[in-house]
Amino acid sequence: MNLQFLTPNWRVHPRVHACMTTRTAGVSSDVYGQINGAHGLNLATHVGDEHAHVMANRGLLRAAVPLPDEPLWLNQTHSTIVYVQTNNGYQHNAPPPEADAVVLTQGGQVGVVMTADCLPVLFASEDGRVVGAAHAGWRGLVDGVLEATIRVMREQGAHQVQAWLGAAIGAAQFEVGADVLAEFLLKTPAAAGDVRVHFKPHPEHVDKYLADIYGLARDRLRAMGVVDVSGGEHCTVTEEDHFYSYRRDRITGRMATLIWMDEPHRMKDEVF
Fold it and tell me: Are 34 and 24 in contact (CB under 8 A)?
């Protein structure tokens, strides 16, 4: 099977590699499959898919992408917790750490977040020595998961951080209530600007809005000094041939967005 991926359209240090999976070319079936109900690449163990299928899909991922190690799978809870992996000693058989972001400082490690409408964001320092990944649903975004990730990266020595926005729910599909707008109005720092520009009144439903999660994330990143931001061109809801979507299907699989660094002595000239 030929797995299909999104690769970030950023120019990072040659040591840094990243990709995002789609729903295609795995072994999961039914709601975890593709549109035809077969060959889905669900990578999450918590959504009701058969465990053997998930493990087989993770094996297909490792076979298709030159990962240096098993990804560090997280237990994501829409928090702002950032897991910092500063050495190569994490145990893959241990329970996954509870966190919604990961920061890596060593080559040979693989950070990963899983999504199905929420926004995956990848980070890399200019010198390729610190990278990160964050899972930003609207709750994590408004509470500051992106800011928390950037702060941790800077504590680990990152400078001139750039970011890539993976596939998430598009602005024409992300219907939210007035309570979500109120949360963003309350919790968005002044430096991020007026959040109301990213909330359009719903044309059919009173007190409902269409929210632009990409725009909200870009403003938060800019307020933190991250101005080199790419990605954000997809919609997981409407591009059903390529992506799982919780908003569209409720019971569904998850994509994975991964980032890793080569060991210094294995640096390549190309960007994966």
Answer: yes
Quick: pLDDT tens for 50-101.
Answer: 999 999 999 999 999 999 999 999 999 999 999 998 775 566 778 899 999 9
Write the DSSP assignment of the chain as a string of letters.
----EE-------TTEEEEEE-SEEEEE-GGGS-TTSSSE----SSSS--HHHHHHHHHHHHHHS--SS--B--B--S---EEEE-SS---TTSPPPB-SEEEE-STT-EEEEEESSSEEEEEE-TTSS-EEEEEE-HHHHHHTHHHHHHHHHHHTT--S-EEEE--B--TTT-EEEHHHHHHHHHHS-GGG--GGGGEEEPSSSTTEEEE-HHHHHHHHHHHTT---EEE---BTTT-TTT---HHHHSS---EEEEEEE--GGG--SS--
d(CA 158, CA 175): 36
Digit-coded pLDDT (tens) for 216-250: 999 999 999 999 999 999 999 999 999 999 999 99
